[in-house]
């Protein structure tokens, strides 16, 4: 695995190059995230990056909520709705300020520290990985409506690792018994990425980019070219998620 903090910074730069080129009309255009404009998507990213800073500073505010409250998506939607009155220039500057601080701040944090995040706590490296995964997913929400190509890079390895690593959690959330799954994925450069025990009876093979899109809930397993064999592989694709809640 390459350096997650450097790759996170590179992902931010890639998205920045897209956002900087958008017209005012594109900022107000519906995104691929249902109910959100492109501005709403970027506002959400700015807000969640600011929550990273708050977590690093020891302020768990929004995370210290009633354990019975599980509607994280609803909480995010409420945050966006409360702060929509912002121009594209102001919004881009706000996201840049928050995102620009995240990689180095997480890299400088003690490696074994646990930071509050949504459903529990994460290490700085894992939190960086979730931020990369969220920005990559939302980059597709921004670019898809305009037919803007968003490249698949070697940075997807972090996202694929996260999706596979959290499969037991994903199974449990759906009330299912966790089962071992081996993934043999084809990287954007044609290399092979392997996750899990090669001896597992359940195996997922295919393009890593599609695996990550399925985990981001931007691609239905049935619409992908991924192959699922064994007793639990198809089920794993159904529950796969590259995010914590």
TrEMBL record:
GO molecular function, one term: metal ion binding
SUPFAM superfamilies, A to Z: DinB/YfiT-like putative metalloenzymes
Superkingdom to which the source organism belongs: Bacteria
N-terminal signal peptide: none
Residue span, Mycothiol-dependent maleylpyruvate isomerase metal-binding domain: 8-142
Pfam family for this entry, one: MDMPI_N
Name of the molecule in the record: Uncharacterized protein (TIGR03084 family)
Source organism of this protein record: Nonomuraea endophytica
């Amino acid at each position: 695995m390459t350096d997650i903090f450097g790759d996170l910074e590179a992902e931010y730069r890639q998205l920045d190059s897209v956002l900087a080129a958008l017209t005012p009309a594109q900022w107000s255009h519906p995104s691929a995230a249902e109910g959100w404009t492109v501005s709403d998507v970027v506002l959400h990213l700015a807000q969640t990056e600011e929550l990273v800073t708050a977590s690093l500073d020891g302020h768990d505010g929004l995370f210290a909520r009633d354990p019975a409250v599980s509607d994280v998506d609803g909480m995010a939607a409420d945050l966006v709705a409360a702060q929509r009155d912002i121009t594209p220039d102001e919004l881009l500057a706000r996201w840049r300020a928050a995102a620009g601080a995240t990689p180095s701040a997480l890299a400088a944090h003690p490696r074994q520290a646990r930071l509050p995040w949504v459903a529990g706590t994460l290490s700085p490296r894992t939190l960086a990985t979730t931020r990369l995964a969220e920005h990559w997913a939302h980059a597709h929400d921004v670019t898809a409506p305009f037919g803007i190509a968003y490249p698949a890079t070697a940075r997807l390895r972090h996202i694929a690792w996260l999706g596979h690593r959290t499969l037991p959690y994903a199974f449990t959330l759906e009330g299912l018994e966790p089962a071992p799954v081996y993934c043999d994925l084809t990287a954007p450069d044609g290399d092979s990425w392997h996750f899990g025990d090669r001896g597992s009876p359940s195996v997922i093979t295919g393009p890593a980019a599609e695996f990550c899109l399925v985990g981001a809930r931007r691609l239905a397993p049935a619409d992908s070219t991924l192959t699922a064999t064994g007793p639990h592989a198809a089920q794993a694709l159904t529950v796969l998620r590259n995010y914590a809640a």
